[in-house]
Each structure stands twice: as C-alpha cells, then as structure tokens.
Design a protein that fits this description.
The chain is α+β, with helices and mostly antiparallel strands. It folds into 5 domains: 29-214, no CATH class; 360-461; 478-645, no CATH class; 655-786, Butyryl-CoA Dehydrogenase, subunit A, domain 3 (Up-down Bundle), CATH 1.20.140; 788-915. It has 37 helices and 16 strands. The strands form 6 sheets. A 4-stranded mixed beta sheet has the order 10-12-13-16, with helices on one face. Strands 7-4-9 form a 3-stranded mixed beta sheet. Strands 11-15-14 form a 3-stranded antiparallel beta sheet, with no helix packed on it. The longest helix is centred in the last third of the chain and has 37 residues, at 878-914. Bound molecules: iron/sulfur cluster. Iron/sulfur cluster binds at residues 247, 269-272, 274, 294-300.
Length: 915
C-alpha cells in the first residue's frame, strides 16, 4: 500500500497485483505454501501418518530394545512389522499421497547424483546435538540405534536439523536440499551393507505372505482405525495460546515520526482490529494493541516494518490423532518427569573436547549475552519505545562481538565451522536491526542450544567453570526448567497460601520436597544451587526446609561423623535447630519435613529423632516461613542417638551458598512480581507520560528507583553466589555472604521485600496474593542460619583486630585500573576506593558493627564492579547500573560513618567543656 501511494497510483487491480500480489508470490512463505500445496489435504485425509506409522515405529523400537532377542531376530520381527504395514489396505495410496504432499524425492535424487565421492569427510559444524528421548511405561530407555556409526549419523542429523530450523529466509525446498546433502555427506560404501540386509529382510517378510501372530497388547495393524472424517479431525484441533504477546509495535522515538506513523496502513489493514491509535486530550497519540484478537493472517507484518510478528514458541496447535500412541504420550506427559537425560556419549573423539582455558570465560560471556537477547526479546513490551529497540539492537550485536574473540581462542575450530558459527551470530544482530526481535530470539536460542554445548565440550566444559560462574548456569537450565515445572504443578499460589495458613503438606507435596532434598544433596554444585534457587522462587519456606537438610549434612560431614547417618532411616530428612544450653530448649525449629533434628548451639551437636518420645514440640505461630512448620522444642527428656564435636565455623561457605541460592530465587520472584506490577498498573492515565511514552506507573521516577534497587540486590547476590572470590578479603566469607544475602531480601528501606511492598502499595494487604506472605517470610531471613547481628559483630571484631584493609591489594589495583581506563565503571571504581578508606572511631561503642556494615557494602559493590568490568559491560547495561548504585550506597555509608565520627568527637568535646 505504501508502494502504491509512493508511486502515486490508485488501488486498481493491476496496481495491487504488481505491488502486493507479485512480491507476495515471490516471498519465502508463498513459495513454501506452493511447495507444500498438497500437504494440508494429505494431513486431512491420511489414516496412516498419525496412526499405523507411529504405532509401527514404536513397535519396531520396542523390538529393537528387547534384550532377549538376537540382532537377527530383531531384524526379522521388525521386517514382519513393516511388511504388515505395507500390506495394510490403502497403504500404497497413502504413500503416493505423501510423496505428492512432501516432494522430497526430487531433492534427494538430485543430491544423490551430486555426491562427489563416498565417505566425504563430514564437516564437524554447524552441528548441535539431536537427542532422542524414548520411554517405555514412563521409564527412559537409552536408544542404541545406529550401532558403531551412531555418532557419525547423529552429527549428520544434527547438521540436517540445523538447516531445516535455520531462520535464514531460505525456502523450505532449499532447506531440505541442504539437509539432504548434510545427511548424505558422511555416507560410505560400508553403510550400504546394513541397508541391503534390511531390504532383504523386508522383502523376505513380504514374500512369506504370512501375518505375524498378534501379541497381546501389541498394535494390530490390520485393525488400525480407519480414517477419521475431516470434520472429526478438525474438531480435535485446538489452539493453546502463548502467555506472551506475539506482536510488537516499534513506536518511533522521533517525535515527528510519531505523527507520520498515523499514516501507516497498520491502523486500517488488520481484519481483527488489533491496532488502534487513540488521540488523548492533550493531542498525544497513544497506540493500543489487542493481540488476543489476532487471527494470524500476517497482513500487518507484510504491510509495515513497524510490526514485529512472531511465534514465540509457547503457543501450539494441539491435534488428537486417531492412534493409541497419543494416550501413551499423554500418560507420559502427565507422569513425573524422568531423571535428567545423561549427556549423549561421544564414542568418536571430539577435536574440541578440551576447551582451551582462554576460551572458557568467553564461552560464559557468550552464553550470558545470548540468554540476554532471548530474555529481553521475550519480555519487551507490546509497544516497544525507541530506547528499547535501540537497546535491543545493541544487545543483539554483542554475541557477534564476543564470538569474534572466542574463535581466536579456539584454534582447533575448523575454518568452515568458524565461518558458520560467526554467520549464525551475525544473523542475530541483523534480525534485530531489521526489527525482527522474534527471529533474533530464535537464532540466539539455536546458537545457545546447538553451538555452545559443542564448543564447551560436554565432558569437560561444565566442570569447574560451572561451579564458579553464573555464566555457565545456562548449562543447568534444563535441570531448572524440569524442577520448575514439577514445583509449579504442586505449589501454585493457592497451595502456598494454604500452607502458610497452616494446612499440612499433602503426601504428594511431601514426596516431591523429599525428592528435592535428596536430589540436591547428591547433585554437583551447579545443579544443587539451581534446585535450591528454584525452591526459593517457589516458596522460601519450602526452600528453607531443603537448605536446612543440606546444612545438617554439611555439619555432619565437616565433623567427620558420617557414620551417624547409618542410624537414620533411609532417605531421612534432617532439620537444624539452635538450642539454648541453659534451658535445653530450642526456641525455633522447622519440622514440616524432618525425620530427625541436628541440635546445635553447644560444644557438641546432637542428633535426635523426630519421633523420640521424650521430645516436646509446641507449634509456633510465627510471622513468616509458616509453611516450614515452625515449632519450639523442649529437649529436657529427649535422647540423642548420636553426638559429635561441633564443627568450626558454624556455617561453611557451601551452606552460605545454599542460603544465597535460596535468597536469589526468592528475590527473582519478587522482582518479577514488582516489574509486572509497574508495567501493568496505570495511574493518572493520559495525564503525562515518560520519555518512552509509558502510561503505567513505570513512568514515575520513584518506581524506577524501587525496581532499580531490587535489580541491584539481585545482581549482587548472583555475583557473590557464583563468584565468591568477590568476598576474598572478608575474614569469614561465609558470614559475609550470608549477611549480604539476607540484607538484600530484608524489610529495611531499599531492600527487595520493602521495595516490592512499596510497588504494590495498598494492594499488598490482600490475603489472596502472596505479596504479604513474601514480606513476612522476608522478615525472617536475618534470623536464618545464624542471626545477622551476631555475624556482623563478629565480622567487625575480626576486621578491627586484624587491622584488615577492607579491600585486598589486588582488588584495589584492579579498581585503580578501571578508574584510569575511564568508561562507564570509572566513577563507581573511584567512589569505592574512597569509600574503603575511612576508619570508624575506635572509641565508638558501635565501631565494630559500623566497620563491618561498611565493609559488606564495599565488598558487594566491588564484586559487582569487577564482574561488570570482566564482562566489558557497556553503558546502560543493568550490571553497570547496579555497580554504580551499589558503589553510591557504599560511598553514602562511608560518608555517614565519617560524619558520625565527627559528631561523636564534637559531642565528647562539648561534654568536656561543660564539665
Ligand atoms: S496478523 Fe492479521 S489479525 Fe493479526 S494483528 Fe496482524 S493483521 Fe491483525
């Protein structure tokens, strides 16, 4: 339409044909539609594709994995199955229809003719990994297809899949051609031998003209259901919508262009009236979108570049095929998720199995940059303002920049792979530059899932680095997602509120939490932290039960008392309770899940069974963490089944990290709620908007400050959790980490719980939301593990006694370098160097606590600044802003401390003078 207007032509049939229909016919989507012209009809009429074919494939897999059968027997039985399928009435007609509908033969024939030689070297990239997930009755069965050649064919399959799924504008025909070439490239003469054996076996079965006996429970192919009528098929098609919008309007930053956008065809072209442009009383234009009305015709996307249109991946078409297979699939889908899939074994040596040390940090940076592209693309508002689009373009170019440095550090990467890897990264930025955020998101995900595991080297890449850096937490993402799904299914908002109100855990909830506790105890650190983090995001009270179990095991292990575990029932879950030795009472224990309790607080730890007849337990009505089953204990008549010398220190770094992971998950949930609220709640509509045209309460500076402080706390806890060297100067890093984590959650002004509460305002008081519960739960964090005030005082005393500088020499030197280099972090580094200098007045009664409080803030800001510098984080990046905010807070504390010293001295002098 714009072209017709630009050419000054009228909307005649001829002009529409030239300017609209012809480019449309030339588009990839149209060519694909032509190529697959018969496909919809085939799907409508087939009785085989979703039925007997699936059943035969499953039955064949079943035969192949029967351990009692020899290979020849398996081949013979599978051949019989295939022969049975071939003989089914209508099969030949269906195959003919399929060949018409999916014209792959021509593509394959062409590629076969072009094969230059047998056994052409299979190029190692761009291979990702194709994982087959095969389960029988919910039990995962490792697939053993392909025998010795499996690695070669897996790689070829992955390359082929890479071509088919690429977001590169090639028509399907070209993609399938490239996929065929990738599949056939590693073909060797020796591969023909098994093919011939299979062909002979199937031909033999056909010639025998016998039907195999129908085993009980096996699919009877002859009795396969006949075709569903088309109407019946259509009636089973359902659409599961995505929660996030699939439309985004790029709202121009340029004020003049805002007027021009009113001339866009967008406001008229949509048949569903999704786009509306309203004029406010002050004359400002305000776009309003109703994506839920969209009928997915794509007209808007073709009519203007102002629209980004995608399929964010969460929505789906659901179809009920006429096969018993779907029932099995559905049962498996409903069943608890299986154990994590073990990495696919790589029988052939991988040239990149050992990642050079220099490449590891870059791999981490790349993983973070890609995930950020995905997250930002998915979370961008329906109407994206100029700053957002500019910011997104910048983010989407970062993976390419990092990738260029990465390939230099990976000399073993073959040239073709290097080229394709860099091209894949460059495409992300190109999509973003063209306003195709959904495509950029999809390509970023593709690189993260397909390239990174290869480059990281599954066997070695996750070791060490995963434990040290949040950059590699991406490798635990699948694990987190699986647990998230399970926890969400058992602990939704209503369930958490019910538990908080005093309802006991249901048997299913109890079983899941027990499994979480035992899984976390046995898992390597990255998975353990990921699981605790997910529990914290679900409900901190439940997460705390698991952290306490881990804490108890840690104490037992550090005391060398592992033998006492033999006296506990298998899979016992432990709690930890601090006892007042004078009264032999524990003011508070959390017993919702516990089978036994480790009693601490004296020179020796004690282990007491939960059902010990002498144990007196009194439920407590506490403010927060009620779902954890708070209880007071009287131990006077209880009998310990074991005792051991209490380990020193009381809290190890591993336990503090578990606590920090719990805190991080909790913060992430509160942050998500706060952001959702500021973006969705509108106050004073139309009265004014901020520079990005926002009408929600996000336009208020106070809200921006609140969410900024929340983000700073989240960044700080994540930094200290995954890069604990940020606390290297602390005399007790575990105590420092614990204090900083609970300070972050807290309920004081500027903490996450306080700010979230502020964002919600009066709405936070509703009993139907978890916000009030979160606030009460947060108020308990400073008492968990070990009370903050005790730890802070101990930290301050150790700092003062040892005359320790707050920052180590190496940290100071690095901060000076950052200051000298200039850039976005120079100011923060300079402020920190100054803040670390003041010494509290030693005479002051609060000197120890003051010094520790200042040190905690300086360590937090220094860790953030060093991390931001290591990532080369640019201006405007959240990490940089968090570093600045944290440094400013440390500087404020230092000034306050100096001022307090001056005030104290002046008061003392005045007292002297008055005496
Ligand atoms: S795809 Fe079609 S229905 Fe959906 S918003 Fe665009 S024009 Fe409207």
């Amino acid at each position: 339409m714009r072209a017709i207007r630009a050419a000054g032509e009228g909307f005649t049939a001829d002009a529409l044909a030239r300017h609209y229909a012809a480019p449309l016919r030339d588009s990839t989507a149209h060519r694909d539609a032509e190529w697959l012209g018969d496909w919809p009809e085939y799907v409508a009429r087939t009785r085989f594709f979703f039925g007997p074919l699936v059943d035969t494939a499953l039955a064949a897999l079943d035969r192949w994995h029967q351990p009692a059968l020899a290979e020849e027997q398996k081949r013979r039985q599978i051949a019989e199955l295939v022969a049975g399928l071939v003989r089914t009435e209508g099969f030949a007609a269906d195959v003919r229809a399929l060949r018409r509908a999916l014209p792959l033969e021509a593509v394959m024939r062409q590629r076969l003719r072009e094969l230059p030689s047998w056994g052409r070297a299979s190029e190692p990239a761009p291979k990702g990994e194709v994982l087959f997930h095969y389960s029988v009755d919910g039990e995962r069965v490792p697939l053993t297809l392909g025998g010795r050649r499996s690695a070669r064919w897996h790689a070829a399959l992955a390359r082929a899949a890479g071509h088919v799924y690429a977001n590169d504008g090639r028509p399907l025909e070209a993609k399938f051609a490239a996929a065929a070439e990738a599949l056939l490239a590693p073909l060797r003469p020796g591969d023909l031998f098994p093919l011939v054996r299979w062909a002979v076996a199937i031909a033999g079965a056909l010639l025998r003209r016998t039907r195999p006996p129908v085993e009980e429970g096996a699919p009877d192919l002859a009795a396969a259901p006949v075709a569903q009528p088309l109407d019946a098929k259509l009636a089973t098609v359902g659409f599961l919508p995505a929660a996030a919008t699939h439309l985004r309007l790029w709202w121009p930053t340029d004020l003049l262009r805002r007027r021009i956008i009113s001339d866009e065809p967008l406001w008229h072209v949509c048949p569903a009236g999704v786009y509306q442009l309203r004029q406010q009383s002050d004359g400002a234009l305000r776009p309003v979108l109703h994506p839920e009305n969209c009928i997915k015709c794509e007209c808007c996307w073709r009519a203007t570049d102002a629209i980004d249109w995608g399929r964010p991946g969460r929505h789906a078409i659901r179809y009920h095929p006429p096969s018993a297979a779907w029932e099995r699939l559905w049962a498996q889908w409903q069943a608890p998720l299986p154990a994590p899939i073990a990495p696919h074994p790589r029988p052939e040596p991988d040239p990149l199995a050992v990642v050079p040390e220099a490449a590891r940090p870059l791999l981490g940076k790349l993983a973070t940059a890609l995930r950020r592209v995905e997250t930002v693309a998915a979370q961008m508002a329906r109407v994206a303002d100029g700053a957002s689009s500019e910011w997104f373009r910048h983010l989407a170019d970062l993976p390419r920049q990092i990738g260029e440095r990465l390939v230099e550090a990976l000399p073993s990467l073959p040239p073709t792979a290097t080229e394709e890897f860099l091209a894949a990264l460059a495409r992300i930025g190109e999509h973003a530059a063209r306003g195709r955020a959904f495509w950029a998101e999809a390509d970023a995900r593709m690189v993260r899932f397909h390239w990174l595991p290869l480059l990281a080297g599954r066997e070695t890449g996750s070791e060490g680095s995963a434990d040290r850096s949040d950059e590699f937490t991406d490798l635990t993402e699948d694990f987190r997602q699986r647990w998230r799904a399970r926890l969400d299914a058992h602990f939704d908002r209503r369930a958490c509120l019910a538990l908080d109100a005093g309802e006991p855990l249901s048997p299913e909830q109890r079983a899941l939490l027990r499994e979480a506790a035992t899984t976390a105890a046995a898992a390597p650190p990255p998975e353990r932290l990921a699981l605790v983090r997910e529990l914290g995001a679900t409900d901190p009270a439940l997460g705390w039960l698991v952290v306490e179990h881990l804490w108890a095991l840690d104490r037992i292990a550090r005391a060398g008392a592992e033998a006492v575990r033999a006296r506990l029932p298998a899979g016992a879950i432990l709690a930890v309770a601090e006892c007042d030795p004078a009264s032999d009472r524990c003011p508070r224990a959390h017993l919702a899940l516990a089978d036994a309790i480790v009693i601490i607080g004296g020179p020796r730890d004690r282990l007491i069974l939960r059902d010990d007849p002498g144990l007196r337990a009194e439920p407590l009505r506490t403010t927060g963490l009620r779902a954890a089953g708070p209880t007071s204990l009287d131990l006077a008549e209880a009998t310990a089944i074991a005792t051991w010398a209490a380990p020193d220190p009381a809290v190890s770094l591993a336990t503090a990290r578990d606590f920090a992971a719990l805190t991080l998950g909790f913060i992430e949930r509160m942050e998500a709620r706060a952001l959702e609220q500021v973006e969705s709640r509108v106050q004073f509509p139309g009265l004014f908007q901020d520079e990005a045209g926002r009408d929600s309460i996000a336009k208020f500076g106070a809200m921006k400050q609140l969410v900024g402080e929340i983000a700073t706390h989240r960044e700080a806890v994540a930094t200290l959790l995954f890069e604990p060297e940020g606390l290297a100067t602390a005399p007790d890093p575990a105590a420092a980490l614990k204090c900083l984590a609970s300070h972050a959650v807290g309920t004081d002004m500027g903490t996450v719980a306080y700010n979230t509460w502020q964002v919600f305002g009066g709405m936070a008081y509703t009993a139907h939301d978890t916000i009030g519960k979160d606030y009460r739960d947060a108020s308990e964090f400073r008492f968990l593990l070990a009370p903050d005030d005790r730890l802070v005082r101990a930290l301050g005393e150790r700092l003062a006694v040892a005359e320790n500088p707050i920052l180590s020499e190496s940290t100071e030197a690095r901060l000076r370098e950052i200051t000298l280099a200039g850039g976005p972090l120079a100011g923060a580094a300079q402020a920190l160097l100054a803040a670390a200098q003041p010494r509290p007045d030693p005479e002051s009664p609060t000197a120890a606590v003051d010094r520790a409080e200042l040190a905690l803030r300086v360590w937090r800001a220094a860790a953030l600044t060093l991390r931001a510098a290591r990532h080369d984080a640019p201006e405007g990046e959240a990490l940089v802003e968090a570093s600045r905010l944290a440094a400013a807070e440390a500087a404020r504390w230092a000034a306050e401390l100096a001022d307090r010293g001056r005030r104290t001295r002046a008061a003392l002098a005045l007292g002297e003078a008055l005496r």
